[in-house]
Amino acid sequence: MIRTNLATRPFYNERAVGLWLLLVAVVVAAATLFNISSVIGYSRSDTELAMQASRDEARAADLRQQATRLRATVDPRQIEFASTEARQANDLIDRRTFSWTELFNRFEATLPDDVRLIAVRPKVDRRTGSILTINVVGRTIEDVDKFMENLEATGAFSHTESKEERIQEDGLLAAAIETTYVPAPPAADAAKGAAKP
């Protein structure tokens, strides 16, 4: 085994090792500074958020107290009165949007020759639509039944039934028919009108 250095000039790695150690020390110091600044920043942020949360909780408690005070000052009779007024206004709007022209056009299309229309009374019901009471006079019960069948066939009338029938002095049959009327939306009527040649 050769124990002599064959290099003309010996090379020692001390400078390279020292440089690498210095570089590692700088990286460790930079990471430590970054971590310290992050911890300080997060600590400040946590403190600010805790203070903000406590302010928000105090504000929420104050608003709850104000709401409780305001509820105590509200008169339930005033609320009921306003609610009644709103219902009446909505009923008036519903009556206003009821189209008599459309209704009578449907009657004209479904009324048999031997049946005459005497009176029509609508009652608006929010759940089921308009409930109509229709008074008619016909020659026979078959004529009145035919009118009721024609109404049902349009699809705008349902639950059609005769509530009262009586023979008048002139021999004609007077009947009071009750039916639920749900008119087609305006868009559907427009589409039906456009489809006709």
Q: Any overview of this molecule?
A:
- By secondary structure, the protein is α+β, with helices and mostly antiparallel strands.
- The protein folds into 2 domains: about 15-75; about 100-195, Alpha-Beta Plaits, CATH 3.30.70.2830.
- The protein contains 5 helices and 4 strands.
- The chain has helices spanning about 15-75, 75-95, 100-110, 140-155, 185-195, and strands at about 115-125, 130-140, 155-165, 175-180.
- The chain has a 4-stranded antiparallel beta sheet with strand order 1-2-4-3.
- A hairpin with a 3-residue loop joins strand 1 (about 115-125) and strand 2.
- The chain is elongated and about 145 Å long.
- It starts with 13 loop residues before the first helix and ends with a helix.
Primary descriptors:
197 residues, Alpha-Beta Plaits, 2 domains, 4-stranded antiparallel beta sheet, 5 helices, elongated, disordered C terminus
Q: What is the number of helical segments per DSSP (H or I, 4+ residues)?
A: 5
| Number of structural domains | 2
Distance between the termini: 115 Å
Tell me, what is the CATH class of the largest domain?
Answer: Alpha Beta
% residues in beta strands: 15-25%
Strand tally is: 4
Q: How helical, in percent, are the residues?
A: 55-70%
Shape: elongated
Can you describe this structure in just a few lines?
It contains 5 helices and 4 strands, in the order H-H-H-E-E-H-E-E-H. It has 197 residues and is α+β, with helices and mostly antiparallel strands. 8% of the residues are buried.
List the helices and strands and how they pair.
Elements: H1 14-73, H2 76-97, H3 100-110, E1 115-125, E2 129-138, H4 141-154, E3 157-167, E4 173-181, H5 186-195
Antiparallel strand pairs: 1-2, 2-4, 3-4
